[in-house]
Amino acid sequence: MTNTKKLAFASDYMKGAHPAILRRLTETNEMQTSGYGADPITASAKDRIRKICACPQAEVEFLVGGTQTNATVIDAFLRSWQGVVAAETGHISLHEGGAIEAGGHKVLALPQENGKISPEVLGQYLSDYWQDPNHPHMVMPGMVYISHPTEYGTLYSKAELKELRENCNAYQIPLYLDGARLAYALACPENDVTLADLAALCDAFYIGGTKCGALLGEAVVVPDPDRLPHFFTIMKQHGAVLAKGRLLGIQFDELFRDDLYLKIGEPAIRAADRIREGLQQGYRLCFGSPTNQVFCVMENRKLELLAETVLFEYWEKYDDTHTVIRFATDWGTKQEDVEELLRVIGRLA
Amino acid sequence: MTNTKKLAFASDYMKGAHPAILRRLTETNEMQTSGYGADPITASAKDRIRKICACPQAEVEFLVGGTQTNATVIDAFLRSWQGVVAAETGHISLHEGGAIEAGGHKVLALPQENGKISPEVLGQYLSDYWQDPNHPHMVMPGMVYISHPTEYGTLYSKAELKELRENCNAYQIPLYLDGARLAYALACPENDVTLADLAALCDAFYIGGTKCGALLGEAVVVPDPDRLPHFFTIMKQHGAVLAKGRLLGIQFDELFRDDLYLKIGEPAIRAADRIREGLQQGYRLCFGSPTNQVFCVMENRKLELLAETVLFEYWEKYDDTHTVIRFATDWGTKQEDVEELLRVIGRLA
Amino acid sequence: MTNTKKLAFASDYMKGAHPAILRRLTETNEMQTSGYGADPITASAKDRIRKICACPQAEVEFLVGGTQTNATVIDAFLRSWQGVVAAETGHISLHEGGAIEAGGHKVLALPQENGKISPEVLGQYLSDYWQDPNHPHMVMPGMVYISHPTEYGTLYSKAELKELRENCNAYQIPLYLDGARLAYALACPENDVTLADLAALCDAFYIGGTKCGALLGEAVVVPDPDRLPHFFTIMKQHGAVLAKGRLLGIQFDELFRDDLYLKIGEPAIRAADRIREGLQQGYRLCFGSPTNQVFCVMENRKLELLAETVLFEYWEKYDDTHTVIRFATDWGTKQEDVEELLRVIGRLA
Amino acid sequence: MTNTKKLAFASDYMKGAHPAILRRLTETNEMQTSGYGADPITASAKDRIRKICACPQAEVEFLVGGTQTNATVIDAFLRSWQGVVAAETGHISLHEGGAIEAGGHKVLALPQENGKISPEVLGQYLSDYWQDPNHPHMVMPGMVYISHPTEYGTLYSKAELKELRENCNAYQIPLYLDGARLAYALACPENDVTLADLAALCDAFYIGGTKCGALLGEAVVVPDPDRLPHFFTIMKQHGAVLAKGRLLGIQFDELFRDDLYLKIGEPAIRAADRIREGLQQGYRLCFGSPTNQVFCVMENRKLELLAETVLFEYWEKYDDTHTVIRFATDWGTKQEDVEELLRVIGRLA
Fold first, then answer.
1. Helices (H) and strands (E) in chain D — how many of each?
2. What distance lies between CA A114 and its chain's CA centroid?
3. What is the mean pLDDT of residues B274-299?
4. Is the CB of C237 inside 8 Å of chain D's CB atoms?
C-alpha cells in the first residue's frame, strides 16, 4: 500500500490519465455504439495513427496491456516450431510471468548492452543457428523482439534499427518493437526515430498508452496486414478483445488528436534531465538512459532514509554496499516535485 | 459501424459507465499510487466485496474481461490432464476463440436446457467417466463451469446450485460460476441466489463489471484462497494484470459503495419485462429468460424493416422463414426507448 | 494382468510383430548407421511407400504411435487460432487424453454415423461457421480429421472421400486421414480405396504399423511436402524422433517389401467374417463394420461366463440388461482360435 | 546417409540392441497379452527396477525416448506458472526442439561448468528469485533438471547430488535427473552414485535404454508415486503410451535380468579410456569426461582426412583453425575398431 504523501518517482504508471482523455470519456459516456471496437471513435483513432505513421494500409488494433500485447503479437507471428529472439533483459524474457512460453514458444535470449541487442550479436546468432548441423533439433529463431526505449531507458538509433532490419531480412523473419514507453522516446532530443520510420522498418510495433498518458491500452500497428491474418480471433483467444472496445479507441483518439502523443512525453524528459543533472554531483548514473528513467548507484545506508519521503524502485544489487535504483518520471511529473526530490537527495549526503 | 441514432438494444455493452464511476475516476486522477493493484482504493473495493459476500477471508482479484477471466481461473484450477465441464452453449465452449484450449485444456461439453446444465446430466456424466474402464485414456473432468445468468438469460435456483455443488463434492472438483451479467440476476425477482450464497457454494465465481455498469473489469472471488496459490503470477502470465490496477479497483469500489451493484440491474429488468409483455401479443418468446435478455421468434421479412430503426442481435435460425433475435437491456436503458421499440414492433405487423 | 491361456480377441495389438520384421531386426542388428532416420534402410522404406502410393514427391516420416502421430500432424497443419473437425467418436475426440488440446487446439466434434462424418454434415458445418456473423469469436475449422477404418470398423467409399475432399477444397482446408488400421481396410473386399487414392485425396494420412504387424510405428505420408515445412523439428518437439530411427524404417521396409502390407490384413478379415457369420445366429451385430472389429450385443449375464475363457472388449452399455462388446482379430489370428471362440459362444446360449 | 564401412564413433545409437533383447523379443513374439503395459513381462521389469533401486514402492513407467520422457515428467511436476531450472547446456535447454516450452513452461537456464550445475550457483539463483520483490512477475523455479552423465560426459558426485537435493529441499521443489546414458555412469570407476542413491536423492529420474543397449525406451522411476498422480493420462496426452507396451517391458526386463544394466556400459568405458589414452599424445582433451564420450580439439585441416574413414561428431568451434570433436563409444564397441581408430588418428599427424 502506498503513502500518497511521498514524492512519487517509482514508476510511470502511478496516476490516472491525461485530462483530455477523462474529458472525452465523460462526453461520450451516453453514446451507444457497437461493441468489440466496431465504433466510429475507434475508427477515427485508427485513422489518426495510420496517418501519423504515413502508412494508410496499416492494420491498427488496440489491446489492453504490454504483456498481453506481446504475447498476442508474438503468437500471431510464430509457427509452433519457432521462438522469439530477445535481449536477456527484454520484458518478455524476464517480467511477463512466462506468457510467451505459456503460448508454446521459447524466448531465445541474447546478450545485451544497456538493454539493446547489437546488430552484430543478432547477425552472429542467426548465422550460427543456420550453420549448426543440429539446428533441426533446436528452436528456430522465428522473429526478433526489441523495445524502444529499452527496459534500461536507452534508445536504438535509426541506423541501428536499419541494421537489425537487414539481419531480419536476411533470414526472412519479422522484426517487432515494443513501444511501451514510446512517447518518452519521441520526446527525447537524442531520438532520431519517427513513427513513420517504425512503420517502414518493423513488421509490427506497439505504441504504448498505459505508461504514456492513457488509463490503459496499447496500439498495435501492423504495416502489412496480410502478415497477420485473423488477428481479431487471435486477440479474442488471448482475452484481448474488450466488449466496450471504444474505451481504448477514445483514449487513442485523444492521444493522437493534434499530435498530442508526440509532445506528451516532454515534461517527463525535462524532469528526468533535471534529476540526472542533480545526481551527477555525487552519484554514478547507469546505462546512459536519456529518457524518462534515471538509474543511479546509491549507498545502501542512504536508501532507507530516502525511502522515508520518496517512492523509487530498487533496480539491482551493485555491490555489497551499493544498489542501483531507478527514478521514473512521466507526462504529468511536476517541476516542484523534482526540485524537492533533489533537495531530499542533497540532504542524504 | 453503428448509426447511433437507432434504438440500441443489441447488447448490454453499448454505452460507457455508470456516472458514479466516471466521477470517481476524475476525482482520483491526480492521486499517485503503487501499480499492479497495490493501492488503497483497490484494497477498499476488495473489502467491500468480501463483506457483501459474507466471506472475510476470500481472495478478490480484478481482471479485465470475461474471456480473460475464464481462461485465467480455469487455468489456475486445472492440472494438465484435466478438462472443464461446461454446457455446449457455454461461453467458453463457443465464443471465446478457443482460449481454454489455447491454455491446453479441453472443454467437455454437456447437453443443456435453456443454457443450463441439469444436476442429473452432470451427475451421470461424471459417474460414466469414472466407471469407463478406459477413462485413463480420456480427459479427466477437473472442474465445472456454469454461467448465471446463462448465455440464454436463464437462472439457476439456489436448490439447483446446491445439487451441482453436491455433484462436484462427490468427485472433489471445483465449481466455478461466470457472472458476466450477475447484476441482472441479482435484480431479477425470480432469482433466489445471493452473493453470499455464491461464496458458500462456489470454489470461484466472478462478478461481472463490463456488462453491469463498469467501463471494463470483472471481480474474481475465491472463497478459499488456498485453492489458487500464486494467482497473481497466473494472472500476469495471462496478461491480466494492469499496471494501473486501480482503474479496476476504483470502478468496483463505486459499484459496491452502498450496495449499488445489487440495484444497478433493476432498470434493465423492468425494461426487459416491459418488452416481453409487449412482444407476447404477436411473438413467440424463447428460452424463458427472466433477465435482461429477451429472445423472440420473428418472421425474416420483418427483420429488415426492424433493422432500419433498431439495433438488435440475430441469435439463430428458427426455421426457413423465421429467426430468433435478441433484445438486450442494461442498467441505463431508458423507458422512452423501450416504449419506442414497442411502437416500432407494433407497426411491423 | 492377462491370463495368456485365454482366447485373445480383445484387441489387435496383443502379440509381437510379423516374423519378417523380427528376422530383419536380427539380421541388421550389428549394422552401424546414422541416427534420427538418416539411414539407408529408412530411405528404402520411404521409397517403397512413395512408390505404392504413386506419389514420388511425397514426404514420408515414421512416428511411434497413433496419438503422437495425430498430435504432431495436426499441430503441423493448424495455426494457433484454428481447430480440427472430427467425428465426436473420433480417436482424437475421445481417447487421446486431450493431446490435441494440450497442443492448443480445439477438436470441433461433429455428429457421426457408425463412426463416419457425412459430407453433408461437414458441408453444413463449414457453411454455418462462415455465415455466422460472430465467427471471428469462434475457433476456425482449420482441417478435417477422419479415420479409415473408423473407430467402429466402418469404411469410407472412394466417392465419399471425394466429396469430403471437395468440402475441404471449398474452404481451403486440409484433409487428414488416420489409418491406424489401414491394412484391415486394404484387405477388405468392401473397400474401394487404394493407397494411391489416399495420396491423391488427402493432404496427409498415416499408414498404421502398430496394429498391422509392426512392433510399433506409423508412417505419415504428405503428398505435397511444401504443406508441412520443418516437419522434422515439429516431430522433435513432440518427442516423435527416435535416436535409433531405423527401428521404424526396418519395420516399414519389411511391411512394404513385395506389397506385404496390402495382404497382411487378410487373415484378420477372414477371421472377423467367420465370427460375424457365427454370431448372426443369436446375436445382433452393430455398426455394420466389415473389417477386423466385430461388435455385437450380448446379455450381461452371459458376459461373465464368456470372460472366463475369452478376452474381449466391453464397448458400451446397450440397455439395462445388454452390452455392446467387441472382438478384434489381427494379421496373426489363427483359424482354430476363431472356431474355439464360436464354440464357446455357442455354449453360452 | 551413412557409409557403414567406416569406423563408427559418431554416437551411441548407431546399432541395434543387446542380443539378449532381440532373443527375448523373438521368444515372446507369439504370446498374447493385454496392451498399454498391462502385461506380466512389463510387471516383471518394473519389479526388477524397484528392487535394484531399493525402492519397493516406486512407480516405474516406460516411455519411448529422451525428449518425450523429459517433456512428460516435467509437465507432470510443474504447475502452469512454474519453469524448470537447467544448465544452459542441458538437453532440454538446447536440443529438444522447444518441447518444454511447447508444454507451456520456461526453461530457466543457469551457467554451467563442464555440463554441470554447481550447488552454489543453484542456491544463489533460487535465493535471488525469492528475494527479488518483483518475483511474482517472473516464472517461478518449480523444479530442477540435471543429467548424469551430462551432455559433456561428466558426472556428479554423490556429495554434489546431496547438496543439490538440499537446495531443492530448501525451496520445496523436486529434483529430476535425466539418465539417458546412465549405464555409462554406472560402469565408470569415477562414479560413486548407485541406482539406490538416485532413488533416495531424486524425486524422479530416468534410466536410459535407447543409448544403453535397447532398441528404444527409457524407464522413469518415481520413488514417491503420490508426487505424480494420473501419470498414465499425462503420458497418454504426450503420446507416450504404446499400444504394445510390452515392447518396452521386455527390453527392460532383459536389461535388468542378472543386473545386466550395471555392467552393460563397461566395454564403452574401456574403449573410451583407451581412446583418451591414445589421444593424449597429440591432442587436447576437453571437459574432463570420464564416461563414453571423448571430446578433443583437432586442427580443421585434419578433420576432412579423418572423416574419410571415421564417423565422429563435430561438437563446436574451438578457434579459427581448430574444432572440438566427439567420439562416442557404446556397450557394443569392439576393441579392434578402437585400435584401428587410434591408428587412423596416428597417421593424421
1. 15, 13
2. 15
3. 96
4. yes
| pTM recorded for the entire structure | 0.97
Q: What is the C-alpha separation between A190 and C303, in angstroms, rounded?
A: 84
Q: Which among C310, C345, C344, C58 has a CA at the least distance from the CA of C205?
A: C58
Using alpha carbons only, give the angle D323, D326, D327 rounded to the nearest 5 degrees: 140
Chains in touch with C (≥3 Cβ pairs < 8 A): A, B, D
C102 touches chain B (CB under 8 A): yes
**8 Å CB contact between D35 and C13:** yes
A131 close to D (CB below 8 A): no
Q: Pick from C148, C159, C179: which is nearest to C289 by CA? A: C148
What SS3 class is residue D285? Answer: strand
Q: Is the peptide bond before D149 cis (omega within 30 degrees of 0)?
A: yes
Contact by Cβ (8 Å): D332, D267: yes
Smallest CA–CA distance, residue D128 to chain C, in Å, is 31
Residues 9-38 of A with CB under 8 A from D: none
Which residue pairs, CB below 8 angstroms and at least 24 apart, start in B225-232?
B225/B57, B225/B58, B225/B59, B227/B77, B227/B174, B227/B203, B228/B59, B228/B73, B228/B76, B228/B77, B228/B204, B230/D79, B230/D81, B230/D136, B230/D140, B231/B59, B231/B61, B231/B76, B232/B61, B232/D136
pLDDT digit string (tens) for A158-208? 999 999 999 999 999 999 999 999 999 999 999 999 999 999 999 999 999
Pick from C16, C39, C102: which is nearest to D29 by CB?
A: C16
In chain A, ranges of CATH 3.40.640.10 domains: 19-263
- Residue given cell 461433429 in the structure block: C110
pLDDT at D314: 94
Q: How far is CA D240 from CA B268, C238, C315, D66, in A?
A: 54, 10, 24, 11
**How many other C-beta atoms can be found within 10 angstroms of the C-beta atom of residue A166?**
14
Q: Is B334 on the interface with A (CB under 8 A)?
A: no
SS3 call for A141: strand
Q: Which of D80, D136, D140 sits opposite B75 (nearest CB)?
A: D80
- Give chain D positions within 8 Å (CB) of C15: 29-33
* Shortest distance, CA C251 to any CA of chain D (angstroms): 13
A106 CB within 8 Å of a chain D CB:
yes
This complex has an ipTM of 0.96
pLDDT along chain D (349 residues), means of 10: 74 97 97 96 98 98 98 98 98 96 98 97 97 95 98 98 98 98 98 98 98 98 97 98 98 98 98 97 95 97 94 94 97 97 92
What are the phi and psi torsion angles at D286 (to 5°)? -120, 155
State how far the Cα of C59 lies from the Cα of C219, in Å rounded to an integer. 10
CB environment C285-309: b (16+ within 10 A), e (fewer): ebbebbbbbbbbbbeeebbeebeee
Cα torsion angle, D131, D132, D138, D144, sign: negative
Please provide the CATH number assigned to the domain covering A19-263.
3.40.640.10
Which residue intervals of chain C bear CATH 3.90.1150.10?
7-13+265-348
* Adjacency order of strands within the sheet including B284-285: B284-285, B293-299, B322-328, B313-319
CA distance B267 to B269: 6
pLDDT at B1 over 60: no
Distance from CA of D121 to the nearest CA of B (A): 25
Q: What is the DSSP annotation of B283-296?
A: SEE-TT--SSEEEE
H/E element, D200? helix D195-201
Residue A104 has pLDDT above 60, yes or no: yes
CATH number for the segment(s) A7-13+265-348 = 3.90.1150.10
**Chain C interface disruption, residue of B91, B105, B106, B317, most C CBs within 10 A:** B106
Burial A232-253 (b: 16+ CB within 10 A, else e): bbbbbbbbbbbbbbbbbbbbbb
Nearest chain D Cα to C99, which residue?
D237
